[in-house]
Design goal:
With 336 residues, this protein is an alpha/beta fold. 32% of the residues lie in helices and 28% in strands. It has a single domain, classed as UDP-N-acetylmuramoyl-L-alanine:D-glutamate ligase.
Length: 336
C-alpha cells in the first residue's frame, strides 16, 4: 500500500521508495540547475602496463609501462559529475602552481566545469597515482599531497561569499586535505542565503558539519562516528541520534551493495541497490552527492534525489576508475 508521500513498506515495516515513480524531467530543468562545489581537488593518474615477471630485487611485479590516463578527482570529480548530468557547475578549490594543477584545470575546462582554482606556490597539487596491471587490476597507489596555506584559504572564502548567492545548491566535498578549513563559516553563510548545503564528510568529527542540510557518510564513515549496531532498528536509532546531535536536516548512509538509507526527522527511507556488475567503486560517493545536488537544484524532492543518486551510483560502479553518469543513462530507460 502506497503512502501519500509515495513510500511503501516492506515485510519488516521499513519504508522504501517506489522505484517506479521516477523523477520526471525533460532535461530543461537540469540545464537550469546551478551547483557550487567547494572542497579538496586532486588529479587521478592511471599508469597502465603489462606484467610478465616478478622483480629479482624484491617479490613485486615488474610493470612494463604502456600508457597513461588522467581524470579529475576528489571535489573535481564531483563537479565533473554535476556537469555530466547537464547542470551548470562552479568549482572553488586550491591547487599548486605546478604541472598537475595545469593539467587538472585543462581537464575541467573540457568537462564544462567553471573552475575557480586558487594557486598556492607553497604546495603541490594533490595527485593519486594508480599503477594498473592486466585486466585493470590495481597494483599500487601513490599519493602526493600537502595542505594549502591559510592566506590562500582566506582568499577562497572571500570568493565563496560571492559565488554562494548565485547558486541553487552547495556541495562541500571533504577529503581531509585541508581545503575546507572554514567549513563552519561556509555552511552558515549558505544557510543564511537559503541555500541547501550537502556535505560529503571525512574523519570522525561530524560536529564540524553542524547546520548542514544533508551529510552523506558511507558505512565505514558512519560506523566510525556512530559505533556498531546489531540490526536495522539500532542502525536507525544511531542515525537519528547522530542527525539530531549534529543538527542536520537529513542523513544519507550509502551502503554499497546494500543500497542507501535516508534519515529525516521521524522518517526513514531505504532504496535498494540496483544489481550491476561492479568494476570500480572509486568515486561512487562523488556521483551520489552530485546527483543529489542536481535533482534538488532542479526542483526535485529529497526522496527523488536519493532515488536518482542510487541509480547514478549503480551506473558508475560498472565503469573503470572515477567516472560519470549521463542524463541518458540515468533517465533514458524505464525502471519497470
Amino acid at each position: 500500500m502506497m503512502s501519500k508521500s509515495g513510500n511503501k513498506k516492506d515485510k519488516t515495516g521499513t519504508p522504501q521508495w517506489d522505484l517506479r515513480s521516477s523523477f520526471s524531467t525533460d532535461h530543461s530543468s537540469l540545464k537550469k540547475a546551478r551547483v557550487l562545489v567547494v572542497g579538496d581537488v586532486m588529479l587521478d593518474r592511471y599508469w597502465f602496463g603489462e606484467v610478465n615477471r616478478i622483480s629479482p630485487e624484491a617479490p613485486v611485479p615488474v610493470v612494463k609501462f604502456g600508457h597513461c590516463e588522467e581524470r579529475p578527482g576528489g571535489a573535481a570529480n564531483v563537479a565533473r559529475n554535476v556537469a555530466a548530468l547537464g547542470a551548470r557547475v562552479t568549482l572553488l578549490s586550491v591547487v599548486g602552481r605546478d604541472e598537475a594543477g595545469k593539467s587538472l584545470e585543462s581537464l575541467l575546462r573540457n568537462e564544462k566545469v567553471v573552475a575557480r582554482l586558487h594557486r598556492d606556490s607553497t604546495i603541490d597539487t594533490t595527485v593519486k597515482l594508480r599503477v594498473i596491471g592486466p585486466r585493470k587490476h590495481q597494483l599500487l597507489r601513490i599519493d602526493f599531497e600537502t595542505v594549502p596555506s591559510h592566506e590562500i584559504l582566506r582568499s577562497k572564502l572571500a570568493d565563496y561569499a560571492k559565488l554562494v548567492t548565485a547558486c541553487d545548491v552547495v556541495i562541500l566535498s571533504d577529503y581531509g586535505k585541508g581545503g575546507l578549513a572554514h567549513i563552519a563559516r561556509m555552511i552558515a553563510l549558505a544557510r543564511r542565503h537559503g541555500k541547501p548545503v550537502l556535505v560529503d564528510p571525512k574523519g570522525g568529527d561530524f560536529a564540524r558539519y553542524r547546520g548542514a542540510t544533508l551529510i552523506t557518510p558511507n558505512l565505514a564513515e558512519f560506523r566510525e562516528v556512530a559505533g556498531v549496531w546489531k540490526n536495522e532498528r539500532e542502525l536507525t536509532e544511531r542515525a537519528q541520534a547522530l542527525r539530531k546531535q549534529v543538527k542536520v536536516d537529513a542523513l544519507l548512509v550509502t551502503r554499497g551493495a546494500g543500497g542507501m538509507t535516508l534519515f529525516q526527522s521521524g522518517d526513514r527511507l531505504h532504496v535498494p541497490a540496483q544489481a550491476r556488475e561492479v568494476s570500480d567503486v572509486s568515486g561512487a560517493g562523488d556521483t551520489v552527492i552530485a546527483a543529489l545536488a542536481v535533482v534538488l537544484a532542479a526542483g526535485g524532492s529529497l526522496p527523488d534525489a536519493v532515488r536518482v543518486a542510487n541509480r547514478a551510483a549503480g551506473i558508475v560502479v560498472a565503469k573503470f576508475g572515477t567516472a560519470v553518469a549521463t542524463p541518458e543513462e540515468v533517465f533514458g530507460t524505464n525502471e519497470g
